[in-house]
């Protein structure tokens, strides 16, 4: 990996939002001669759950690794819990939770034993109102691993290992939690339990969470804010509804007149349907209004920014 400063010193620019848990300004990353991030800007606040969406290779893991302090950026200003992750110390690290890929090298440890052992690192970083680490028993229960607490890690299934990864990420009661595709390999029940856990962490402990996923339903369910990364930049941010409003044609109206069927994309479905009935009234035999899903919106945003082309979510009125 070749990493170099592209311009200026990132430490000279003070963060514009000192209250932010994460403040990223003009973040750039170049691998060799390939620019992956062209100037990423976003902030996250206490207790917020942010989901980072983007196609394969967009740079999501790169961003997360830079924010975790595991990868040096090429340029830009990054503040995480008030510090630059590139130079922050152990006390900072104790406030940050990271869910890495599975711990393949601890197979002979037992679940409870490993969590207890890792938790001891955080004892020195306990604060009034924020006891660290989590009680091992509570933690095992929170991630649904009670039946396997005394089992060797090598005997866990893929999904159970992933639950353990999550437990390892939160054992130090982090103020900020990074989750890179945390539910890959989860069955539907484990996925729902995990979503409940993230909601509990953000609602009860005010934990800020930044996660990546390719599961759009998960993004919609979990995120206070969804960030879409495309073309090396954050091209849109907001709730699923707010994102939909950034793309033309947020709803589709399908209707039939006799044997003919029609489809029209519109930002004002109610007004369109009123007009339709005013014109054709009793001739309309069937009608359906479908709002753009997050998938429609996401694909339109990515397509637009990857091709530099127009917004093609808007469908023309068509006859079969
Ligand atoms: N160490 C590296 N050296 C060179 N190129 C790299 C390195 N790490 C990542 N890349 C490249 O940078 C780009 C972004 O990779 P990254 O893993 O951040 O994407 P991602 O959005 O997390 O992708 P995915 O959804 O597939 O996990 C990719 O084109 C990848 O090939």
Overview of the structural elements:
With 320 residues, the protein is α/β, with parallel strands linked by helices. The chain folds into 2 domains: 20-243, P-loop containing nucleotide triphosphate hydrolases (Rossmann fold), CATH 3.40.50; 249-290. The chain is 31% helix and 25% strand. The protein contains 10 helices and 12 strands. Strand 10 and strand 11 form a beta hairpin. The longest helix has 17 residues, at 188-204. The relative contact order is 0.13. Mean pLDDT is 86; it is low at 1-12 and 309-320. Adenosine-5'-triphosphate binds next to helix 1.
SSE inventory with pairings:
Layout: E1 22-31, E2 34-44, E3 49-53, H1 60-68, E4 75-80, H2 90-93, E5 96-99, H3 111-119, H4 136-142, H5 158-170, E6 176-180, H6 188-204, E7 208-212, H7 216-222, E8 225-230, E9 233-238, H8 240-245, E10 251-257, E11 260-266, H9 269-280, E12 284-291, H10 294-307
Parallel strand pairs: 3-7, 3-8, 5-6, 6-7
Antiparallel strand pairs: 1-2, 1-4, 8-9, 10-11, 10-12
The structure holds adenosine-5'-triphosphate.
The site of adenosine-5'-triphosphate (ATP) has 11 residues, from helix 1.
Shape: globular
Instruction: Identify the strand order in the major beta sheet.
Output: 5-6-7-3-8-9
CATH fold naming of the largest domain? Rossmann fold
CATH H-level superfamily title of the largest domain:
P-loop containing nucleotide triphosphate hydrolases
End-to-end Cα distance, whole Å, is 53 Å
Largest sheet: 6 strands, mixed
């Amino acid at each position: 990996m070749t990493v170099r400063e592209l311009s200026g010193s990132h430490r000279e620019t003070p963060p514009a939002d000192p209250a932010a848990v994460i403040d990223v300004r003009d973040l750039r990353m170049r691998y060799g001669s390939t620019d992956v991030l062209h100037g990423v800007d976003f902030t996250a606040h206490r207790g917020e759950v942010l989901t980072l969406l983007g196609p394969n290779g967009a740079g999501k893991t790169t961003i997360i690794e830079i924010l975790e302090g595991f990868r040096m950026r090429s340029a830009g200003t990054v503040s995480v819990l008030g510090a630059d992750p590139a130079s922050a110390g152990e006390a900072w690290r104790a406030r940050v939770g990271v869910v890495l890929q599975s711990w393949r090298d601890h197979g002979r440890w037992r679940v409870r034993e490993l969590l207890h052992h890792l938790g001891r690192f955080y004892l020195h970083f306990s604060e009034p109102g924020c006891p660290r680490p989590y009680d091992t028993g509570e933690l095992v229960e929170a991630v649904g691993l009670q039946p396997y607490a005394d089992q060797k890690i090598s005997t866990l299934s893929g999904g159970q290992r992933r639950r353990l990864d999550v437990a390892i990420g939160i054992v130090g009661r982090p103020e900020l939690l990074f989750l890179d595709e945390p539910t890959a390999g989860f069955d539907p029940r484990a996925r729902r339990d995990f979503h409940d856990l993230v909601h509990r962490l953000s609602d009860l402990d005010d934990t800020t969470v930044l996660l990546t996923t390719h599961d759009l339903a998960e993004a919609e369910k979990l995120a206070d804010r969804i960030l879409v990364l495309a073309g090396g930049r954050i091209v849109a941010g907001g709730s699923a509804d707010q994102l939909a409003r950034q793309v033309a044609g947020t709803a589709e109206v399908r209707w039939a007149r006799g044997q003919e069927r029609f489809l029209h994309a519109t930002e004002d479905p109610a007004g369109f349907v009123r007009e339709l009935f005013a014109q054709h009234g009793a001739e309309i035999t069937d009608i359906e209004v479908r709002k753009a899903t997050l998938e429609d919106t996401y694909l339109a945003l990515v397509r637009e920014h990857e091709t530099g082309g127009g917004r093609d979510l808007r469908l023309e009125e068509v006859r079969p």
